[in-house]
Design goal:
With 331 residues, the protein is of the alpha+beta class. Helices cover 59% and strands 10% of the residues. α1 runs antiparallel to α2 and α9 runs antiparallel to α10.
């Protein structure tokens, strides 16, 4: 068994997951057996609490289960099997597979939603713990990320397409006499306004692009020897074997990903895009040591330039002060 033990939050989440599954199975069995609603309402919370306490007491025996589960998408998806089972139970009576009252599909549907939500949370916790276990404290290189504007790239195409579809649906509803089409057209103005604002540079306060100093508009991405840590919308580690071309355009740094959306960064917030791209390419090609040395040299050069500039500014200030001092004037 591994020396690593789960933290308290994962043990609580795991216990809640087990409790929901066991309580759901028990509740469906009780409904099928004809038990009263009062009995089910009493036993369900008790089952969840018992499973939660069991996990908190004996959760240390899970070892490195969170890290092992978080490292594989298939393992994380396997946790959704009970939710799929509840969902199948909800539609089974309508297909004639089970003979039951309306309480059975209602109960099954409720536990489908509950178990799915809990599974999503536990899956995210496991993935985050796997990332923490396989990445060192400091990345080889890190940089600021801010989304490109809506006027270009895949995001812009999605927003424009969504606006067009919404307008078409709204007009169609109005043509057939459905008054709700007017509300649909009103909602279509929101994405249309966002797209036009980005395209033509309109700035209206709340719609304004977050500045580089804004905590809402920025986040930090990190590159490690074993992958690229992306933390713009959800935290995930992308291995280098899934990274394709890394290129620079006039306004973006683009990291292409196999079978998924590319990582696009606003170039204007990156200090040295060319050096960053070269470092990422070396990491992708398995030259981690060279990439680390190259970026350290880059940081040293930047620090040296800043120090030289500071000394030059100080000397110019002292020269101007000396020239203005009459006691230092040779005449």
């Amino acid at each position: 068994m591994s020396d690593r033990t789960p933290d308290l939050s994962f043990k609580a989440g795991f216990g809640f997951y087990l409790g929901i599954i066991v309580a759901g199975i028990t509740a469906l069995g009780s409904v099928a057996a004809g038990a009263g609603t009062e009995t089910i309402l009493v036993t369900t919370p008790s089952t969840v609490v018992a499973a939660l306490l069991f996990s908190l007491v004996f959760g240390d025996r899970l070892g490195d289960l969170p890290e092992r589960l978080g490292g594989s998408r298939r393992r994380r998806l396997a946790w959704y099997l009970p939710s799929l089972g509840f969902g199948a139970s909800a539609i089974a009576p309508t297909m004639g597979v089970l003979q039951s009252t309306g309480r059975f599909p209602l109960t099954a549907g409720l536990f489908t939603v509950l178990s799915g939500a809990v599974t999503l949370g536990v899956s995210q916790m496991a993935r985050h713990r796997h990332i923490d276990a396989v990445t060192p404290d400091e990345p080889v290189v890190s940089w600021q990320w801010r989304r490109p504007s809506f006027k270009s790239g895949f995001q812009g195409a999605i927003l424009l397409g969504f606006t067009i579809l919404t307008v078409v649906f709204g007009l169609s509803s109005l043509l057939v006499g459905d008054g709700s089409g007017g509300w649909v057209l009103l909602y279509a103005l929101i994405p249309a306004f966002m797209w036009l604002s980005d395209r033509y540079g309109w700035r209206w306060g709340v719609w304004e692009e977050p500045s580089a100093d804004s905590q809402w508009g920025m986040t930090t991405l990190g590159a490690y020897e074993n992958g690229l840590l992306v933390d713009n919308f959800e935290r995930r580690l992308v291995s280098w074997d899934r990274i394709g071309e890394i290129r620079l355009t006039d306004d973006q740094l683009i990291v292409e990903r196999d079978r998924w959306f590319d990582v696009r960064c606003d170039r204007s917030v990156i200090d040295d895009p060319e050096s960053l791209r070269a470092t990422l390419v070396r990491l992708r090609d398995g030259k981690g040591r060279d990439a680390y040395d190259q970026w350290n040299e880059h940081d040293a050069d930047v620090a040296s330039d800043h120090e030289h500039k500071r000394k030059s500014d100080t000397e110019r200030t002292e020269n101007r002060s000396g020239a203005a001092d009459p006691e230092l004037d040779p005449n």
